Amino acid sequence: MVLHMSSLFLRTLREDPADAEVPSHKLLVRAGYIRRVSPGVYTWLPLGLRVLRNVERIVREEMDAIGSQELLFPALLPREPFDASGRWSEYGPNIFRLQDRKGADHLLGPTHEEMFTLTVKDLYSSYKDLPLSIYQIQTKYRDEARPRAGLLRGREFVMKDSYSFDIDEAGLDKSYQAHRDAYVRIFDRLGFHYVIVEAMAGAMGGSKSEEFLATAEVGEDTYVHCTSCGYAANVEAVRVPAPDPVGWEGVPAAHAEDTPDTPTIETLVNHLNEHYPRDDRPWAAGDTLKNVVVMLVHPDGTREPLAIGVPGDREVDEKRLGAQVEPATVEAFDEKDFAVHPGLVKGYIGPGALGLEGTTGIRFLLDPRVAAGTRWVTGANEPGKHVIDLVAGRDFEGDGTIEAAEVRFGDPCPNCDHVLEGARGIEMGHVFQLGKKYAEALDLRVLDQNGKLTTVVMGSYGVGVSRAVACVVEGNYDDAGIIWPRELSPADVHIVAAGKDEALFSAADEIARDLEAQGLTCIVDDRRGVSPGVKFKDSELIGVPTIVVVGRGLADGKVEIKDRRSGERREVALEGIVEAVLAEVRAS
Ligand code: ATP
Ligand code: MG
């Protein structure tokens, strides 16, 4: 195939688009791969579509290789299956809902657990039909609260989702492992650096769950890994080891003290050290218990205040909290909310006001570090007063624990006695063991060996296909533009006719035809009246890994071949160009 720049539906831009913040978004728009339609909704221009198809091909090949079978569900789905699973309401405002002319509710599929489960139920009835693995590559719709970064978080995006169906847990383990192995091969081929981390099972329930995160500063996820053992987890999934309970013999009774002008933890700690010094060591922020109140919004719209007690040297991490309270969402507790709850004294909220036993009855969940016997300074529910020597288990109790405090690099590993390091990443794939959640909700049962009905055990596996296009760019670019890995590139070679002489154009075309005959795809920059400088710039921006320049050297029977990745150039005799390009393509 030969793509002529003179007619290719493409305009490259010199300027970054105004709304773009991350490199992949800027470059994909500037190089003419995608075009924004509305927030989080993009058009795939010809070159972009070619890259998307390449990602799809890699995903397809590896899914087919593990015996998964491709099918395609509609994106337009009726409401009923989602009522049956409970997700019509759980999704809240995150899905696109619409009605047909008769007023029947529909949605645009955000993911397809229900459809896969119901279709298997429709067609299969015996253990002899299992195991089964099926997948689709589908456009998904989610009304994301914050679409951002171009393809990285869209409202319309392409996902590969697959599901495994087994008769028992052992079967699920095998299916899960096969998928995990396929994902390793997919992401190795896609050519960006990634890590595999433990993940939250999230709204879908289930047990074992891992994410494939592309390591990237622009990522929305943070992960940690142990400096010694193999532990690695999305911070959302980190379990803080709860300290063993300690006795409180000899701990004085709790006492409220004046702490005027101590609106922050720092001012409070200074005040304590000045007026109520400890004998063993100075007070530190970690000795204070900070009680943060947020507003949960449940899928049915009900609003519930929630108080979270964390050591004062840590913030509540929005993403960790969000993952814990899903499908509810979290909003700030604002002045109006405080007005409704006069028992909450802003800046001085203490356990006495909280919990189902407390004066406000607001649900109160504690960080695992607030274990029985630990001793705290915390708000006294009166302006300008704190309580000292308040002992967990003796003086107060929460309504449970919650993993919502920030995880810090340097924190102890939950698995061994070393510390955690971490970085940011982009979630590219997610494998998890759904177990029986959907099969139970939708009554997917088959006859087992003994002729008894048994619930099918499922796994669910996703790859962000359109997100991968952006992710590949995040891992492969320089100041001049994109540098595609060979398998993803929209073409094998980009041929530039650099000059005015017609002979250059016909030579470039001839090279393209010869390469096409060898099965390669070529872009030929055959634009008349465009300077060589502009053509070189465009070739670097577009990012095909091999560039052939047909220029001045042609008079001596020479053309230039340039490696976009290393920048290396060399002259090659015109007769040898096809061989030389083929060698490049095969080498990488
Ligand atoms: P995230 O935490 O990033 O919102 P998710 O956990 O909701 O993702 P899944 O439901 O696990 O996503 O979807 C499977 C895959 O689809 C994800 O691993 C990700 O690569 C991709 N994906 C999810 N949401 C989007 C989106 N809004 N835009 C592009 N790709 C997405
Ligand atoms: Mg996920």
From TrEMBL:
EC number(s) recorded for this UniProt protein: 6.1.1.15
Protein localization: Cytoplasm
UniProt GO MF annotations: proline-tRNA ligase activity
Catalytic activity line of the entry: tRNA(Pro) + L-proline + ATP = L-prolyl-tRNA(Pro) + AMP + diphosphate
Pfam families xrefs: HGTP_anticodon, tRNA-synt_2b, tRNA_edit
Keyword Membrane belongs to the record: no
Location of the Aminoacyl-transfer RNA synthetases class-II family profile domain: 35-485
Predominant location category: cytoplasm
Keywords, comma-separated and alphabetical: Aminoacyl-tRNA synthetase, ATP-binding, Cytoplasm, Ligase, Nucleotide-binding, Protein biosynthesis
Stated role: Catalyzes the attachment of proline to tRNA(Pro) in a two-step reaction: proline is first activated by ATP to form Pro-AMP and then transferred to the acceptor end of tRNA(Pro). As ProRS can inadvertently accommodate and process non-cognate amino acids such as alanine and cysteine, to avoid such errors it has two additional distinct editing activities against alanine. One activity is designated as 'pretransfer' editing and involves the tRNA(Pro)-independent hydrolysis of activated Ala-AMP.
Subunit (UniProt): Homodimer.
Family: Belongs to the class-II aminoacyl-tRNA synthetase family. ProS type 1 subfamily.
Domain note: Consists of three domains: the N-terminal catalytic domain, the editing domain and the C-terminal anticodon-binding domain.
Name used for this protein in its record: Proline--tRNA ligase
Organism field: Intrasporangium calvum
Designated gene of the protein: proS
